[in-house]
Amino acid sequence: MFKLLGSLVISFIDELGNITILGLRAMRSIVRGKVQMRNVIDQMAWLGVNSLAVSVTTAAFVGMVFATQIVTKFSKLGAISMVGGIVGLAVWRELAPILTAVVLAGRIGAAIAAELGSMKVTDQIDAMESMAVSPVDYLVAPRVLSCVFMLPVLIIFADLIGFLGGYFVSVFIFSVNPVSYFTSASTMLTVTDIWPGIFIKGPIFGLIISMIATYKGLSAKGGARGVGEVTTSAVVLALVSIFVSNYFLSQIIFR
Predict the structure, then answer these.
(1) Where are the domains of the chain?
(2) pLDDT digits 0-9 by tens, 80-135
(3) How far apart are the C-alpha atoms of 254 and 129, rounded to whole Å?
(4) Alpha helices, H only, the chain
(5) What DSSP designation does 255 have?
(6) Which of 17, 58, 102, 166 is the most buried (most CB within 10 A)?
(7) Strand boundaries in the chain, DSSP class E
(8) What are 132-173's pLDDT values in tens digits?
(9) In the prediction, which pLDDT does 227 show?
């Protein structure tokens, strides 16, 4: 048991160190201006714009479900006028950032790991290095920069759509006063409830997803089976890392 536990701890620390090193190399490429903006824009369109529909759809229905539960319980307590504020706090603080990150981890994390993994097992990465083209500059850094920039943008849309989804259910299904919905939101919400989820959690989640996915993709081996294994591993590790980091970020920001 101790041998197994020790090997798991050593493996975790080793993998964390490798991801950190890759991240530092990517940051150095970005700071030194070695990233081609054309690649970054292409990745923004692929990672961000193409993920907009699924992220806002998820946010809308989550906001609607959350509002349904809140209205049902608060109506029994005589606190129906607080529904808008509670929905707004939940969406802006937690639901929109975490669910957008989860959607991107499933869609983008898997796609990046599979793409880079396929390039790795077919020796395309080795061919790039033999031509003095850095895979970090050409493949890793653009994806990291795109995820860090686009995830906050997607969270903004998810915030708005999730809040409006809660409004739709509250007003048109449970007959909550629309004025009280927005009044309670404006009263209970402050700037410090809105911006951390966008400008702190968003970039951190984007960095986590992109770094794990690129590292797993570049470490693929063993043909098609290896690509499938690193893809699954990238998604699982990204999801766990997002939930763990979200807890500590919320404890630091909203205490």
Answers:
(1) 37-253
(2) 889 999 999 999 999 999 999 999 999 999 999 999 999 999 999 989 988 888 99
(3) 45
(4) 2-31, 37-47, 52-77, 83-90, 96-104, 110-121, 124-130, 135, 141-172, 178-188, 191-196, 202-218, 223-253
(5) -
(6) 166
(7) none
(8) 889 999 999 999 999 999 999 999 999 999 999 999 999 999
(9) 93
CA distance 199 to 7: 37
> Which residues lie closer than 8 Å to 90 by C-beta, 6 or more apart?
66
Residue 178 CA to residue 175 CA, distance in Å, equals 8
Burial environment of residue 118 by CB neighbours within 10 A (0 to 12, 13 to 18, 19 or more): middle
Contact status, residue 194 vs residue 158, Cβ threshold 8 Å: no
User: What angle do the packed helices 141-172 and 202-218 form, to 10 degrees?
Assistant: 130
In this predicted model, what pLDDT tens digit does every residue of 46-75 receive, in sequence order?
888 889 999 999 999 999 999 999 998 888
- Looking up tokens 């049902």 gives 72
Distance CA 252, CA 255 (A): 6
Between the CA of residue 168 and those of 13, 52, 67, what are the distances in Å? 47, 20, 9
Q: What is the pTM of this model?
A: 0.94
DSSP states of 137-181 as a string?
IIIIHHHHHHHHHHHHHHHHHHHHHHHHHHHHHHHHTS---HHHH
CA–CA separation, 109 vs 209, rounded Å?
6
In angstroms and rounded to an integer, the radius of gyration of the C-alpha atoms of the chain is 21
Structure-block tokens of residue 39:
């690649």
Residue type, 191: V
158 burial (CB, 10 Å; 0-12 / 13-18 / 19+) is buried
Q: Are 211 and 144 in contact (CB under 8 A)?
A: yes
Which tokens hold the place of 49? 């714009």
